[in-house]
């Protein structure tokens, strides 16, 4: 258990603003501890992230409790029940870890995760996450714009899409010994979606590095799309000319289209997408177009038929 107590805070080199943010993080992590969530079996090697500012892209809605964010997960590499990832993901080894940024770029680069963490300033982004299954959460992520990393590698004219690939190692990921999906998990975005300032690479949540069940050490978060677009524990980011195949698209193409924009008017073939349950709430709420991020992203889809391109 690596969560430090407030007394251990190093305040010498931080500004008052940073101290305020650190205290707040402690209070939040503290309430997670007080609720008895971090039982020995589920202890995660999370460490505190410091010096963060809250991004102006944050929603001001109430945050989903830490307990729910870290025990109600979809991460099929560790089982298909919501509680499986929190129980099983301790077998994931997140060091050493590299992320290969490759394909149609002028400067491909294999990043060591710790170098990556140092290279890009991390801020806090409170985002809604809407799962295609009909539930949602509000999660305070720590991350940086994917665009910052993309600019560094200088995509060529052939780079029209970006493909993300999760680690493939059945020894660490027991779910990969089953055929529930075609492994490794892959996802993709159009280059302009990937460059959009709302799209982040998340390395933490609630002021701590990511728990394994949430996709440690690094995962994508695309808040206006269904949660499955946000691939976890990424080892490769590849720039390609053709629209990449995605794990869920391969499994059920008529149910999980490439765009996967949250669109309450387009039903999943087996259920409605008009309403959602915010985890922790009793009554369902109306689902918003683009998960409520329409002002920022609707222009990306101008002229497209979003029923055909679902
Ligand atoms: N590699 C991988 N990434 C994944 C998944 C998965 O099963 N494997 N599940 C997706 C789905 S369906 C959702 S809703 C989100 C859940 O993220 P969270 O558990 O951090 O809330 O992760 C997405 N990323
Ligand atoms: Mo999901």
UniProtKB/TrEMBL annotation:
Keyword Metal-binding recorded: yes
Pfam families, from UniProt? Oxidored_molyb (PF00174)
Q: Name one GO molecular function term.
A: oxidoreductase activity, acting on a sulfur group of donors, quinone or similar compound as acceptor
Report the residue ranges that make up the Oxidoreductase molybdopterin-binding domain in this protein. Answer: 93-248
Q: Which UniProt keywords apply?
A: Metal-binding, Molybdenum, Oxidoreductase, Signal
Cofactor(s) listed = Mo-molybdopterin
The PTM entry states: Predicted to be exported by the Tat system. The position of the signal peptide cleavage has not been experimentally proven.
- Enzyme nomenclature, EC number: 1.8.5.-
Kindly state which reaction or reactions the protein catalyses: L-methionyl-[protein] + a quinone + H2O = L-methionyl-(S)-S-oxide-[protein] + a quinol; L-methionyl-[protein] + a quinone + H2O = L-methionyl-(R)-S-oxide-[protein] + a quinol
Checking PROSITE patterns in the record gives:
TAT
Q: Which residues bind Mo-molybdopterin?
A: 73, 76-77, 131, 166, 214, 219, 230-232
Name a biological process GO annotation: protein repair
Task: Provide the cofactor note recorded for this chain's UniProt entry.
Answer: Binds 1 Mo-molybdopterin (Mo-MPT) cofactor per subunit.
Q: What NCBIfam families does the annotation carry?
A: PRK05363.1
Assembly notes: Heterodimer of a catalytic subunit (MsrP) and a heme-binding subunit (MsrQ).
Family membership noted in the UniProt record: Belongs to the MsrP family.
PANTHER family reported in the protein's UniProt record: PROTEIN-METHIONINE-SULFOXIDE REDUCTASE, PROTEIN-METHIONINE-SULFOXIDE REDUCTASE CATALYTIC SUBUNIT MSRP
Physiological role: Part of the MsrPQ system that repairs oxidized periplasmic proteins containing methionine sulfoxide residues (Met-O), using respiratory chain electrons. Thus protects these proteins from oxidative-stress damage caused by reactive species of oxygen and chlorine generated by the host defense mechanisms. MsrPQ is essential for the maintenance of envelope integrity under bleach stress, rescuing a wide series of structurally unrelated periplasmic proteins from methionine oxidation.
The protein in question is named Protein-methionine-sulfoxide reductase catalytic subunit MsrP
Originating species: Sulfuriferula plumbiphila
């Amino acid at each position: 258990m690596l969560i430090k107590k407030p007394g251990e805070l190093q305040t010498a080199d931080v500004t008052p603003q940073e101290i305020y943010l650190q205290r707040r993080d402690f209070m939040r992590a503290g309430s997670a501890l007080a609720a008895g969530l971090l039982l020995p079996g589920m202890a995660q090697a999370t460490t505190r992230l410091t010096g963060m500012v809250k991004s102006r892209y944050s929603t001001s809605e109430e945050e989903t409790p830490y307990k729910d964010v870290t025990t109600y997960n979809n991460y099929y590499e560790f089982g298909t029940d919501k509680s499986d990832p929190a129980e099983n993901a301790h077998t994931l080894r997140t060091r050493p870890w590299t992320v290969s940024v490759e394909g149609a770029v002028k400067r491909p680069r294999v990043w060591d995760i710790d170098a990556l963490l140092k290279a890009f300033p991390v801020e806090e982004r409170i985002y809604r996450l809407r799962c295609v299954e009909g539930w949602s959460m509000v999660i305070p992520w720590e991350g940086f714009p994917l665009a910052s990393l993309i600019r560094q590698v200088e995509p060529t004219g052939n780079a029209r899409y970006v493909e993300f690939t999760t680690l493939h190692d059945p020894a660490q990921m027991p779910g990969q010994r089953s055929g529930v999906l075609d492994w490794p998990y892959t996802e993709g975005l159009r280059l302009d979606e990937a460059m959009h300032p709302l799209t982040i690479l998340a390395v933490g949540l609630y002021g701590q590095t990511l728990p394994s069940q949430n996709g440690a050490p690094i995962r994508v978060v695309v808040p206006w799309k269904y949660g499955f677009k946000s691939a976890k524990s990424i080892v490769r980011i590849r720039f390609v000319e053709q629209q990449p195949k995605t794990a869920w698209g391969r499994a059920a193409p008529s149910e999980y289209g490439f765009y996967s924009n949250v669109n309450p008017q387009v039903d999943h073939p087996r259920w409605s997408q008009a309403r959602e349950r915010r985890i922790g709430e009793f009554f369902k709420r109306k689902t918003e177009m683009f998960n409520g991020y329409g002002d920022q992203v609707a222009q990306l889809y101008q002229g497209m038929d979003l029923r055909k391109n679902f």
